[in-house]
Structure to design on (462 residues):
């Protein structure tokens, strides 16, 4: 598959074969991502990092990824200092920035902004999160983390836990996992459970998702616990939030029931969902997962910019 | 004896088989407000129909609908038929069939969709189902709820 010039807006834009191609290349990128090997395969290329919203991991890992490949990153000054604050449309910003760079990475608070940018840009656009919309590089690095751990994704039992209603990232992940033959269970309180549309989509892809509100129902069987943050602002009553958040807190007591090789994942930042004591156990994978963002993003940059051999 | 509640029209458009209760929305689509028309407009609601039990019908004299208006009608009443009448005869008959992609006639209902900002872009939806119409915004990927409320 030729990725050169391709926009990466939604994980749905990629076939299973294309996702495999990205993950295979990400595997080869690991020594380069760790600084154990060196390459200048993207020397002379410029990445425009357009972040209209704060981000820690995505922003920094794209910068690291581009640097590790020998390319350079152009940063946007704080949006409030740019013409955006003077009322410039995203379209005009994109038209300008595409003439300064070879690839655009965009994080924007409005859903569909990356698709709009891709529509106007002749340079490839990579969606780094569009509000509550898509975040395909997060999905790719989640898949990569599971594949690296278990050497496959098929038949792996993944429990998605927490706020499954509002975050589209977890919807895309549920679909992508099913596409690869994983068995998904949705663990959430009734008011934050996976939307029916996503459950139907998972079923359409051949999955048989299970829904429950109890972590105890899945803890003995699961290979992966994928925890998401339950956001306080979704609850009008703080007491109600405490009750729900407490139900899904992962600690060593709970993990005593789990399989020995169960891994705990979290897109980060975490608040109270995972007790710090878990960090020292063999189950914790969230920091490895955050690192995996680098080789995965390196692979994507290399593919969309059509760089040569490493 | 058959009773005609509304007489046939000489020239204009008859929109037939409108889903029951949708006639007033059809009037809005074709821009009839009551003060801006110079020829008669007849609205029949809850008329017995052999196909669907009951239907609405709208007759607009001295005016032929354009393609965009027909597409909009298809969005709220996919089984409607549009008959262009010339000199008391049906000169053209169209089914209000939806195309596979709908552009510029309905806006996205998601307030956080980028198309609801001042961007120089037409709204665009893929038609996931024609009856009942289900539209998905190609930008924010959300299904549009309550299509009639979001017609442009």
């Amino acid at each position: 598959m030729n990725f050169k010039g391709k926009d990466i807006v939604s994980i749905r834009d990629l076939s299973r074969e294309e996702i495999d191609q990205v993950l295979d290349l990400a595997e080869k990128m690991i020594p380069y991502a760790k600084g154990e090997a060196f390459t200048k395969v993207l020397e002379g290329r410029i990445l425009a990092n357009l972040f209209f919203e704060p981000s820690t991991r995505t922003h920094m890992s794209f910068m690291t990824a581009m640097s590790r490949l020998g390319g350079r990153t152009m940063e946007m000054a704080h949006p409030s200092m740019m013409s955006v604050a003077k009322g410039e449309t995203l379209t005009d910003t994109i038209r300008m920035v595409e003439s300064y760079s070879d690839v655009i990475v965009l994080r924007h608070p409005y859903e569909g902004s990356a698709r709009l940018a891709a529509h106007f840009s002749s340079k490839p656009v990579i969606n780094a999160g569009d509000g509550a919309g898509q975040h395909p590089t997060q999905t790719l690095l989640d898949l990569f983390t599971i594949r690296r751990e278990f050497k496959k994704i098929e038949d792996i039992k993944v429990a998605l836990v927490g706020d499954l209603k509002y975050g589209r990232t977890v919807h895309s992940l549920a679909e992508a996992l099913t596409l690869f033959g994983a068995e998904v269970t949705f663990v959430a309180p009734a008011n934050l459970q996976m939307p029916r549309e996503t459950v139907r989509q998972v079923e359409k892809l051949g999955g048989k998702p299970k829904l429950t509100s109890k972590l105890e129902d899945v803890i003995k069987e699961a290979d992966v616990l994928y925890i998401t943050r339950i956001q306080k602002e979704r609850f009008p009553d703080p007491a109600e939030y405490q009750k729900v958040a407490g139900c899904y807190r992962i600690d060593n007591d709970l993990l005593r029931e789990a399989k020995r090789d169960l891994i705990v994942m979290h897109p980060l930042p975490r608040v109270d969902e995972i007790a710090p004591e878990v960090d020292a156990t063999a189950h914790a994978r969230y920091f490895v997962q955050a690192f995996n963002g680098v080789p995965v993003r390196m692979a994507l940059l290399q593919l969309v910019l059509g760089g040569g051999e490493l | 004896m058959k009773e005609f509640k509304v007489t046939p029209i000489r020239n204009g458009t008859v929109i037939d088989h409108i889903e029951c209760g949708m006639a007033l929305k059809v009037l809005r689509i074709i821009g009839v407000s009551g003060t801006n028309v110079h020829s008669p407009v007849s609205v029949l609601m809850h008329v017995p129909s052999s196909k669907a039990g009951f239907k609405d019908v709208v007759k607009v004299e001295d005016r032929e609908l354009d393609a965009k208006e027909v597409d909009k009608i298809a969005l709220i009443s996919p089984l409607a038929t549009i008959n262009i009448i010339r000199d008391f005869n049906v000169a053209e008959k169209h089914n209000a069939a939806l195309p596979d992609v709908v552009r510029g006639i309905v806006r996205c209902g998601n307030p956080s969709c980028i198309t609801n900002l001042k961007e120089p872009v037409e709204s665009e939806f893929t038609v996931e189902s024609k009856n009942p119409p289900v539209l998905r915004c190609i930008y924010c990927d959300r299904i549009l709820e309550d299509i009639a409320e979001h017609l442009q």
Remarks:
- DSSP finds two helices and eight strands in chain B.
- The longest strand of chain B covers residues 41-49.
- Chain B touches chain A through 18 residues (CB under 8 Å).
- The radius of gyration of chain B is 17 Å.
